[in-house]
C-alpha cells in the first residue's frame, strides 16, 4: 500500500481520483502544496504547476519516491534535486494541444475585436461602438514561436482565417511545412514580419526572457503578443515598456512569471528579492493595462482536457507502483 498525496485536485475530480486508485492511502487536497499540511510520510506526490517543488519540499518529504505532475510543463519542479535523489518526475506529455491552442485563439480573437472592453461597457450600460474598432485577421502575418503540439494546432486553426503564418523553432521539422500551412523563418525575420506573435516553447534557461527589450525593438510597430506557454518567456519590464511606447499594441497572456504572488497575494509581504518584486509590480501593471487581457493560467482548463490529464497522471502513478516508470522527465 502506497501513501499518496494529491494537491490542487479540482473538487469535481476528487471522487474520480479516489475511484481510480484503490487500495492505497490517499490524501486529496484542492489547494497547492502546503508544507505545513502535507503528510510527511508521503511516498507519491501528485502536484500541479501552482506549487513550487524545491529543495525544501524534497527535504520535508524524506520518504518521497515519485512525483506525478498533472501537467506537461515541469519547470516548477527542481529536476536536479529530483535526479540527485533518484525520484522520477512523470508528466503528461500530451493532453490538450487543441485545448491550449483554442485558448491562444480566444485571446487573439478577443484582442482583435476589443471583446473585453465591449462586454465591459455594455454591462456598464453604454450600448455603442465608439472606441471599439477592431482589426481583421485576414491578410495579417502571424508568427508562431515553437511548432510543437500546441503551436501546430494553432497553425491549423489559423488556416481558416486566411492569414499568412510563419514560424520559428530551435529544432524545425521540415516535414511539418508540407502538411500544415506555414513557412519556417529565422527568429529575427519572425520578429520583423509578424503582426501577431504567439509563444509555444517550453521555459528553459535558453528561452527565459526570450522576449526582452532587444527582441521587442525588432518587432513591427503595433505588434500583438500572445503567451499561453510560460510567463518567464517574456520579461514583463520589456512588455510594459513596449505597451507604453506604442511598439506593442496589445498583449493576451494566460501566464505570468510571478503568478504565484497573484495566486497568494499575502506572500508579497515576504518578498525580499528585489528583482522578483519588480517583476511582480510590472506584471501588476500588465494586468491593469487597458490593452491587455490576462487570464489566470487557465488555458488547460476544459472538461475534456482535465479528464485526459487526470487519466494519464493516474496511469503514471499506477505504472510506478507496478514497477514500470513511464513519462519520466528526469530521464530526458
Ligand atoms: P512541445 O514540446 O510539443 O513543443 C515545444 C516546441 O518548442 C518544440 O517544437 C521544440 O522544438 C521547441 N523549442 C524548444 N526549445 C526552443 C527554443 N529555444 N526556441 C524555439 N523553439 C524551441 O510543447 P507543447 O505541448 O506545444 O507546449 C508548449 C508549452 O506550452 C509547454 O512547454 C508549456 O510550458 C505550455 N503549456 C501551457 C499551458 C497552459 O495552461 N497555459 C498548458 C499546456 C502547456
Described by strand count, sense and barrel closure, the largest sheet is: 7 strands, parallel
Shape: globular
- Total E-strand runs: 12
Q: What low-confidence regions span 5 or more consecutive residues with pLDDT below 50?
A: none
Strand order of the largest sheet: 8-7-6-9-10-11-12
SSE succession: EHEEHEHEHHEHEHEHEHEHEHHEH
Q: Could you report the average pLDDT, rounded to the nearest whole number?
A: 96
Distinct ligands: nicotinamide-adenine-dinucleotide
**Strand content of the residues, in percent?**
5-15%
Q: Please give the alpha-carbon distance between the first and last residues.
A: 29 Å
The residue fraction in helices comes out at 25-40%
> Quaternary state, please?
single chain
Relevant terms:
332 residues, alpha/beta, 5-stranded parallel beta sheet, 12 strands, 36% helix, globular, binds nicotinamide-adenine-dinucleotide
Structure in words:
The protein is of the alpha/beta class. Helices cover 36% and strands 14% of the residues. The protein contains 13 helices and 12 strands. The chain has helices at residues 14-20, 55-60, 79-84, 97-112, 115-123, 149-158, 174-179, 187-193, 213-218, 236-244, 259-263, 274-288, 303-321; strands at residues 3-6, 25-28, 44-47, 66-69, 89-90, 141-145, 164-168, 183-184, 196-199, 223-227, 248-253, 292-294. The strands form 2 sheets. A 7-stranded parallel β-sheet has the order 8-7-6-9-10-11-12, with helices on both faces. The protein has a 5-stranded parallel β-sheet with strand order 2-1-3-4-5, with helices on one face. Helix 9 links the parallel strand 9 (196-199) and strand 10 (223-227). Helix 4 (97-112) crosses helix 6 (149-158). The longest helix is centred in the last third of the chain and has 19 residues, at 303-321. The chain is globular. The model has no long low-confidence stretch (mean pLDDT 96). Bound molecules: nicotinamide-adenine-dinucleotide. Nicotinamide-adenine-dinucleotide is lined by residues 72-73, 97, 100, 145-151, 169-171, 200-203, 206-207, 228-230, 254-255, 297, 299-300.
Amino acid at each position: 500500500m502506497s501513501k499518496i498525496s494529491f494537491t490542487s485536485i479540482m473538487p469535481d475530480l476528487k471522487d474520480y481520483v479516489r475511484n481510480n486508485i484503490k487500495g492505497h492511502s490517499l490524501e486529496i487536497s484542492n489547494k497547492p502544496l502546503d508544507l505545513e499540511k502535507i503528510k510527511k510520510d508521503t511516498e507519491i506526490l501528485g502536484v500541479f504547476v501552482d506549487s513550487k517543488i524545491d529543495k525544501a519540499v524534497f527535504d520535508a518529504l524524506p520518504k518521497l519516491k515519485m512525483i506525478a505532475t498533472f501537467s506537461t510543463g515541469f519547470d516548477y519542479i527542481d529536476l536536479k534535486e529530483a535526479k540527485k535523489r533518484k525520484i522520477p518526475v512523470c508528466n503528461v506529455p500530451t493532453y490538450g494541444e487543441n485545448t491550449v491552442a483554442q485558448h491562444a485563439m480566444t485571446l487573439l480573437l478577443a484582442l482583435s475585436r476589443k471583446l473585453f472592453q465591449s462586454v465591459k461597457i455594455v454591462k456598464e450600460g453604454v450600448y455603442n461602438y465608439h472606441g471599439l474598432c477592431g482589426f481583421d485577421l485576414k491578410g495579417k502575418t502571424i508568427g508562431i514561436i515553437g511548432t510543437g503540439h500546441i503551436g501546430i494546432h494553432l497553425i491549423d486553426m489559423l488556416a481558416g482565417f486566411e492569414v499568412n503564418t510563419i514560424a520559428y523553432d530551435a529544432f524545425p521539422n521540415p516535414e511539418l511545412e508540407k502538411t500544415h500551412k506555414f513557412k519556417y523563418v529565422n527568429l529575427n525575420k519572425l520578429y520583423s514580419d509578424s503582426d501577431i506573435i504567439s509563444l509555444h516553447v517550453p521555459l528553459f534557461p535558453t528561452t527565459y526572457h526570450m522576449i526582452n527589450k532587444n527582441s521587442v525593438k525588432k518587432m513591427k510597430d503595433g505588434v500583438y503578443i500572445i503567451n499561453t506557454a510560460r510567463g518567464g518567456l517574456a520579461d514583463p519590464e520589456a512588455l510594459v515598456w513596449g505597451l507604453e511606447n506604442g511598439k506593442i499594441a496589445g498583449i493576451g497572456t494566460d501566464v505570468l512569471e510571478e503568478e504565484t504572488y497573484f495566486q497568494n497575494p499575502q506572500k508579497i509581504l515576504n518578498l525580499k528579492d528585489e528583482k522578483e518584486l519588480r517583476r511582480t509590480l510590472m506584471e501588476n501593471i500588465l494586468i491593469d493595462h487597458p490593452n491587455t487581457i490576462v487570464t489566470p493560467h487557465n488555458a488547460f482548463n476544459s472538461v475534456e482536457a482535465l479528464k485526459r490529464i487526470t487519466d494519464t497522471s493516474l496511469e503514471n502513478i499506477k505504472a510506478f507502483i507496478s514497477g514500470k516508470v513511464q513519462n519520466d522527465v528526469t530521464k530526458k
